[in-house]
Amino acid sequence: MIGAHLPALQVVVPLLAAPLMVLVRRGGFAWLLATAVSWVSLAIAITLALRVYESGTISYPIGNWPPPWGIEYRVDAVNAYVLVLIGLVASIVAPYARLSVAAEVPRDQHYLLYTMYSLCLAGLLGMAITGDAFNLFVFLEIASLSTYVLIALGRNRRALLAAYQYLVLGTIGATFYVVGVGLLYLTTGTLNLADMVVRLREVQEIRPVLAALAFVTVGMGLKLALFPLHFWLPNAYAFAPSAIAALLAATATKVAIYVLLRFYFTIFGPSLVFERLPMAEILIALSVAAVVIASLVAVFQRDLKRMFAYSSVAQIGYITLGMGLVNEPGLTGAVAHLFNHGLTKGALFLLLGGVALRLGGTNIDRVAGLARRMPLTSFGIVLAGLSLIGTPGSAGFISKWYLVVGAVERGNWWLAILIVASSLIAVAYVWRFVEMAYLRAPQAGAAERIEAPAAMLLPAWIMVAGCIYFGLDTSFSAGGARAAAEALLGGLR
Amino acid sequence: MRRDLVLRILAKLLIPFVLVFALYVQFHGDFGPGGGFQAGVITAAAVIFYAIIFGLPAARRFAPDWIVESMVAAGVLVYGGVGMLGIVLGGNYLDYFVLAHDPVQGQHRGIFWVEVGVAITVSGVMLKIFYKFAGRRREADQP
Asked: Do A61 and B92 touch (CB under 8 A)?
């Protein structure tokens, strides 16, 4: 009986856990509940994904109001994949958070942090699962508002500025999105995404639709940190509490990318977006700029968290590049990179959280000789770094392989070469860590072993292991991504 | 504060009516303008009015911080709980049709409790914001 309600429970469980945490007001209880909720979300997401792969799209009418009128939750191959990613990352970050948060956040704020964590989880899952354009905006706001609070809880006072910066830009992004949805509602008279697809085909006057496309692109571009709209991201990731940085880096921008994919491919349709408009060229140009410029900026960062934050902007560039290729391998690469980069960046930020805990910061000078002091953490960062570069045998390689194939299929040899060449810049910044950690001696009087606690190391290493595992067994990461790409491209024909 | 006799007496006279009006707005929301949000704001306004006239400590004695914070959460739980009740009674999430034998009455019942939840949370949030701003200097002065 409960099985039929899984699409609703996917969102409702974390949503209702949040007020419970506020009522109980105990940090320990809130952490336990947050962990349990994350695991339940993952279990629901996996169940839904299996069901979708087996028997196709699941539709769930909220409140039993039939779809075009009521709000519909709709799970297909695309968002089932995103739901699994969110659930997986949250289930790994939540157990990790206890020690990390205890070290970085004042005790009386713990229960509020986990409340916001649950709300953020509910918001992200809701954005992914809903089939209603305005409902998506509501969840976008839930996820964003809780994210602002989570970032502001960072130990450094500059976290407040970072949160404020993100608040301003994030609000502009959400407003642009809702203006775009308003224009779509004006032309089609519906907010249901599936219904919108049908009605948009009959629209004669295309100008408001083009304006909607522009608004949604800019709005979601801000949320997903599409170059050059990424200025909020490095500070947000660098100053948020470590566990939160890992959660955001692995999920928040990815969900925004999903929304953009959904609007481009399912709703507006590729013939409008990519044939009548030069969106493919624009996306490719911005993505190439992101990959090259953000990677170069990352090389010159003094702080490891900021370095990997800029690297996130570059990696998001690869994903939007795959979107711009508009063919099946390109899209498969883009969707697979959502997952693979989520795992990789999650692992890196979790490991950096351990570094921040033991060394009091992640400045590059502090990690001198880190390999001798924190061997497991250092080795984990190297392995995840290899996945970031896209070394064969790692998860990052799989998605970049599809991107290269997509570029070649589109006839853009220079793009394929650029994807490979830009990985060399990633080698440069990962090498900076290797050089500091492995080739330098520890600073005088700081030679003792200070490995991160097992409760933090284990979740981080599960993610590192995932980076390797999904580089060898691609049946879910690439297989699910291909199913998603087919669904995205198939909806258009 | 002690000297403002007119204000103090007027406040004591007015506040009960403000609270009753809030209840009217709450329960008449089904048929006319009003509803949980407005009722919650009016309730909170009554307490804020009390705080302005009689001082923040007096208001905090009447509505302590922990109650206010619990209200913020409790309202959401009521709202979500009504939704879960739909599942328990064999419908979908937020399904009010199943809350009574007659579907229309079920919708009435569902929206009634939802509005109760909204009122609780809104008045809680309003008071929380007011306390946070009004208490700022006090907290900053303390070491």
From this structure: yes
A22, B96: Cβ pair inside 8 Å? no
In the 8-state DSSP scheme, what is residue A360?
Answer: S
Cα A2 to chain centroid distance, Å, stands at: 29
Given CB atoms, is B97 within the 8 Å cutoff of chain A? yes
> Within 10 Å of residue B139's Cβ, how many Cβ atoms?
8
Considering CB atoms only, which of B74, B91, B93 is closest to A23?
B74
Which chain A residues are closer than 8 Å to B95 by Cβ?
A: 63-64
- Tell me how close the Cα of B108 comes to any Cα of chain A, in angstroms: 13
**Interface residue B93 vs chain A (CB under 8 A):** yes
Residues 172-211 of A with CB under 8 A from B: none
pLDDT digits (tens, 9 = 90+) for A110-160: 999 999 999 999 999 999 999 999 999 999 999 999 999 999 998 888 899
Best CA proximity match to A493, nearest among A340, A365, A339, A326: A326
| Domain assignment of residue B57, given as a range | 5-141
**Is there a contact between A329 and A409 (Cβ–Cβ < 8 Å)?**
yes
Indicate the residue of A5, A21, A22 with minimum beta-carbon distance to B93.
Answer: A5
Q: Which residues contact B59 (CB under 8 A, 6 or more apart)?
A: B47, B48, B50, B51
Tell me whether residues A62 and B93 touch, CB distance under 8 A. Answer: yes
d(CA A27, CA A106): 11
| Same domain, residue pair A97 and A137 | yes
Check residue A126 and give its pLDDT.
95
- Other CB atoms within a 10 A radius of the CB of residue A50 amount to 12
Q: Do B92 and A62 touch (CB under 8 A)?
A: yes
pLDDT, mean over chain A: 90
Is residue A290 located within the same domain as residue A253?
no
Expressed as residue numbers, the domain containing A71 is 1-169+231-260
Burial of A218 by CB count in 10 Å (0-12 exposed, 13-18 middle, 19+ buried)? middle
Q: Answer yes or no: is pLDDT of B142 > 80.
A: no
Span B30-54, pLDDT tens digits: 777 778 899 999 999 999 999 999 9
The CA distances from residue A136 to A126, A199, A338, A405, A468, in Å, are 7, 19, 19, 33, 34
What's the whole-number mean pLDDT along residues A438-452?
A: 78
* Residue A380's pLDDT band (cuts 50, 70, 90): very high
Q: How many domains does chain B have?
A: 1
> Minimal Cα distance from A10: which residue of B?
B93
pLDDT in tens, A446-479: 667 888 888 899 999 999 999 999 988 888 888 8
The band of B143, judged by pLDDT with boundaries at 50, 70 and 90, is very low
A62 interfaces chain B, CB cutoff of 8 Å: yes
Q: Where are the beta strands (DSSP E) in A381-483?
A: none
What gap in Å lies between CA A70 and CA A73, rounded to an integer? 10
**Pair (A237, A336) in one structural domain:** no
A311, A239: one domain: no
Which of A2, A16, A63 is the closest to B96 by Cβ?
A63
pTM of the prediction? 0.93
pLDDT, residue A493, reads 41
Quote the minimal CA–CA distance from A130 to chain B in Å: 14
